[in-house]
Amino acid sequence: MQNFDFYNPTHIVFGQNRLAELDNLIPADAKVLVLYGGGSVKRNGALEQVKAGLGERSVIEFGGIEPNPEFTTLMKAVDIVKQEGITFLLAVGGGSVMDGTKFIALAAKFDSEPESLLFHGFNPPPAKEALPLGCVATLPATGSEMNMGAVVTYNHQKYPVMSPLAFPKFSFLDPEFTKTLPKEQIANGIADAFIHVTEQYLTYPVNAKVQDRMAEGVLQTLIEEGPITYADNDNMDARKNFIWSATMALNGIIGSGVPHDWATHMIGHELTASYGIAHGRTLAIVLPSLLRERKTQKHDKLTQFAERVWNITEGSDDDKINLAIDKTEAFFNSLDIVTNLTHYDIDDQGIEKVVGNMEKMGLTALSETGDLDLACVTRILHAAK
Ligand code: NZQ
Ligand code: ZN
Q: DSSP strand E in 131-173: where?
């Protein structure tokens, strides 16, 4: 196992009808900015319950944070924070609203140009403080409710921002609010959570047994409970397991002390930036081809994945690996996620554009060992046609 620090201060409040407890979690004299997206939180009752939970506190609303949140939109909220003397941010929505709120929390307390918070990749930006924030998560997918990451769109590119100052103080995970999700968002969330795990698990072995077995447990839970949630909107037991899987997939626990890949995410972000394809879907397009391309480098962990996650015991290692990748792709397809680029009208020229953008972004040495170059990205995308 590699050396690691594990730090996660987020208080999770899991379960139905708990928003009255907001009162215990936000200072009574706080001036609160409640942030949300395009209006789903009005339809599922989350906003109403949040306002009731905040009681007599002074509250201002900021709606309209779009999927793949735009820097310019977030800066409008930063202006309001400053003008109104806001002291607490409350995100109510999916990953985009939670991520956007994290960025607002950092930018509102940052003295220099806010753009300069964006260009630090997986290293922390030069922020010294942030406004406190909490979340009411309505879409299980990103893990944003319990991590320090945000992804912000700026000039048609997606930038990760990773700051320990951006951890939510608390996050409510109430499964009731997720019942208004369209089916395709459930599928996107299952794919996103699954691939958060594989980015931290399908690398090379470092004998991190707890992390490996927890990663395998999350993957198996997604394989079991994801399709039930997708098919049956009323199955609360399956949904709760799916929601907690998505949080556990990216809250730092399974990623402690192990190598990380993130190449699928970096390629996927470019597909979203250039073609507007939803985040989870981009990952499901890339992952199967990436795994086929990287079978040699990932041989040991892919064999373990085949045996322990997909219970494949027959045949050579190579047979097991091939079948495990096929089963993974079939799993995404079973959720009506199409895993080829042609379906999204992306041809050879489109692939060139994606690779060109990655070069501009400096994404030229990806993977757990930094050896996945743009020639390799090109092969992966051609194989995904
Ligand atoms: O805007 P509203 O009206 O709320 O509608 C949203 C949006 O249209 C809707 N939605 C959310 N909750 C709903 C609902 N509709 C009905 N009922 C509900 N309960 O779903 C649509 C998509 O929402 P969005 O927040 O964009 O989706 P998701 O949670 O998948 O977040 C995607 C964003 O997170 C970033 C992605 O890059 C993308 O920008 N990521 C953040 C990560 C992190 N913070 O650690 C890691 C991820 O890998 C990812 O990159
Ligand atoms: Zn993701």
A: 133-137, 149-154, 157-162, 170-173
